[in-house]
Hints:
The complex is a heterotrimer of chains A (288), B (362) and C (301).
Chain A: H1 3-14, H2 25-58, H3 75-81, H4 84-117, H5 123-135, H6 138-152, H7 158-183, H8 186-194, H9 199-228, H10 231-236, H11 243-252, H12 260-281
Helix pairs in contact in A: 1-2, 2-12, 4-7, 4-9, 4-11, 5-7, 7-9, 8-9
Chain B: H1 2-10, H2 20-25, E1 32-38, H3 46-52, E2 56-62, H4 66-77, E3 83-84, H5 91-96, H6 116-124, E4 135-147, E5 166-167, E6 170-171, E7 176-178, H7 182-192, H8 208-221, E8 225-228, H9 232-240, E9 246-250, H10 251-260, E10 264-266, E11 274-282, H11 289-299, H12 302-312, E12 315-316, H13 319-323, E13 341-342, H14 349-361
Chain C: H1 3-45, E1 49-50, E2 56-57, H2 63-69, H3 79-111, H4 114-129, H5 132-137, H6 148-154, H7 170-194, H8 198-206, H9 211-222, H10 224-239, H11 243-248, H12 256-267, H13 270-294, H14 297-300
Antiparallel strand pairs in C: 1-2
Helix pairs in contact in C: 1-13, 2-13, 3-7, 3-10, 4-7, 7-10, 8-9, 10-13, 12-13
Organism (chain A): Halorubrum californiense DSM 19288
Subcellular location (chain A): Cell membrane
Family (chain A): Belongs to the binding-protein-dependent transport system permease family. CysTW subfamily.
Amino acid sequence: xxxxxxxxxxxxxxxxxxxxxxxxxxxxxxxxxxxxxxxxxxxxxxxxxxxxxxxxxxxxxxxxxxxxxxxxxxxxxxxxxxxxxxxxxxxxxxxxxxxxxxxxxxxxxxxxxxxxxxxxxxxxxxxxxxxxxxxxxxxxxxxxxxxxxxxxxxxxxxxxxxxxxxxxxxxxxxxxxxxxxxxxxxxxxxxxxxxxxxxxxxxxxxxxxxxxxxxxxxxxxxxxxxxxxxxxxxxxxxxxxxxxxxxxxxxxxxxxxxxxxxxxxxxxxxxxxxxxxxxxxxxxxxxx
Amino acid sequence: xxxxxxxxxxxxxxxxxxxxxxxxxxxxxxxxxxxxxxxxxxxxxxxxxxxxxxxxxxxxxxxxxxxxxxxxxxxxxxxxxxxxxxxxxxxxxxxxxxxxxxxxxxxxxxxxxxxxxxxxxxxxxxxxxxxxxxxxxxxxxxxxxxxxxxxxxxxxxxxxxxxxxxxxxxxxxxxxxxxxxxxxxxxxxxxxxxxxxxxxxxxxxxxxxxxxxxxxxxxxxxxxxxxxxxxxxxxxxxxxxxxxxxxxxxxxxxxxxxxxxxxxxxxxxxxxxxxxxxxxxxxxxxxxxxxxxxxxxxxxxxxxxxxxxxxxxxxxxxxxxxxxxxxxxxxxxxxxxxxxxxxxxxxxxxxxxxxxxxxxxx
Amino acid sequence: xxxxxxxxxxxxxxxxxxxxxxxxxxxxxxxxxxxxxxxxxxxxxxxxxxxxxxxxxxxxxxxxxxxxxxxxxxxxxxxxxxxxxxxxxxxxxxxxxxxxxxxxxxxxxxxxxxxxxxxxxxxxxxxxxxxxxxxxxxxxxxxxxxxxxxxxxxxxxxxxxxxxxxxxxxxxxxxxxxxxxxxxxxxxxxxxxxxxxxxxxxxxxxxxxxxxxxxxxxxxxxxxxxxxxxxxxxxxxxxxxxxxxxxxxxxxxxxxxxxxxxxxxxxxxxxxxxxxxxxxxxxxxxxxxxxxxxxxxxxxx
Lengths: 288, 362, 301
């Protein structure tokens, strides 16, 4: 293939039809950039998926390593579903996450309204304070809450974990609510009022339906953050079971990891399904 | 009632302040719930204990180590937990802080069957001179495991093996692992260097000079290590792949490895084994002391004790219980306990820990 | 005057304030008790001591700070300092890698629509939602002297021994952190790139700017805000990471969170932990200032 043929092929990809005889350097760079971006993106997707897919594969094999390939088995899943303490820990973590995200929602939605709709002294300070739980490294939050609970004499466990996780989850509720209310058309509310709706009816029939997707998305995030947290629960959870603590123990103290791979696989599977549904129904990026 | 109980358990009742009082009277029909803060594996004999002791129900919580157990109980968990089972070197700390209740020796009918070593340990380390405050339940020791297909069984057993590039003609470069913890690794190094004097008395007390030498030894030797590793799975894999010749870790870890890798044996070093035992303490704040002592007595009974050992790969302090055990890897040679060095608190543990951090970052 | 304003007026100033207190009060109380108060205690305990039965002995001594920076090892020779520097380095490299990797993907996402957009979004978001500990764990069997990478390398004709770089250690930690935090960077970059008016790009192209020039002079400056936010959200959590080095450094070195956790877990040295934490808070405060300067809350949703 001659050079000119190469150029014309590239130019066909990037140039306007009919303009094939002169090819600017920029066009070639463009073409390479397009190819490059695709190649890089595919490479990155592979990078993101490689370890996870390897775990999925491992969950069905007899060996704990991929090579040499062992036989296919469901034994790992049997050991997962007979591992009572791991399952109990998973249930416990889900329970903690639900309560914590619930508390965060109850506190966060009105707080979001206050920030978005009212002006008051110290508002900018409050806006800053709201994102602190998001930025504060988990190990600091854990240590500082451990000290607080120790000083006030609250013994570690479920209650303290819910306190920690509910404040950790607060920004995930407040931020989307504030963002949603900021772009929300106030005329809708006023229109409803002009049509005779009272404050409660406006809130119920106009405002809440519009911001509820934001609240729902925030709840899911707060829930996930609580569910996946290790370091905070490590410091303030006391002897309470938690899935992450159980998984950490399995790896670091080696209490047998054969249940790890199927557990991880199930998590990936559930997430994939939920996400596929969400992406098809809504523009979920609005809430990320 | 049953549903309520299950719900509370699922809700993590062990941690909820204010619910602590409930656990004692839950269950109805005169049954008592004994709440235990301990290591993994104890729950395997719950049914057996509950069957043996009429009207007692067990509730097991797992803590991350002895320091954690102490801080939990000290922070007000003493009413929440009836029994705490830390490592022996922590029991004096419980006694000093008035967190332990004196043992009712009349209930401890199995005490006389304990190995004499542990009877005297209870009366020594676990006593304030009058009363005994703790019960040795399970024990094990730290020494090194080795691949007998490379390092013959009849080599001179010594902690020196861990700090040699070559031992009796066997190449050990890069084939050694040490325990990933400051306390155990520093003690092993001290023993290898012959600092046995430091182990006399109530604490392990190396001199400054000795500590410096220990640190230098560990840093110099670090390149020769495969790593600071003590988890069973990694060690098993590395033994299987022939990467390790000797590994310093708990005996129970090695029992697990031996089940998978035939050629692995456990040493009996001439400097003696570093022995730990779990010292069960009934908390001073417990409102079920009598039931709690009955449970302790059950943990060292010939049947339950043996079952506990087989489930945890850890030996029981009761000779009668050990006689009931068939698993070969759990058999111990008579006399192994004679010269044992029991775990004692480190005299300057913040200095030790900083030293180990330095070694790791070196 | 709108009817809404009328309604507000009808309620009057006082009850307006009561309403506000009712709405914001509980949330603010939560933040004060569980974020600010603990932070204050952290400072206080960093000057206190702990006795042998693990009780806090209130005092004003700098011994914890002495322990952090001098200890037994000599000024700035302590493991704490070493680990702090190491953690800063690991976080910086991780942040850099996520930027380099996320930019093109974020850009591509803005140029796609419909089915292709959804598929790519799905592909990058599933690992994001997979819980953190699983993401880190998933690298465990790839690294190590017997890991998948080394086994594959050894199986090749001219490599006979496992390659040190692919054993557990710094590289493993950096790669897994990059993997774990990549989506944070991607999403913040995407949302700022998305806001760029492509008319500007078209215009610069019409004015003869090359693609490289457009990237350098138009796209990067316009997405700077997202870039900074993204960097903060990668750098800060990476700095405080505990599980990652626990799983993938396997005792080869200690990151800062491991040092603090170790002291607290083994010695219950919450005073040392508190003092050490304050030095982790400094980067957090800087990050916070940056975010507050560059981003509005409305944009962070």
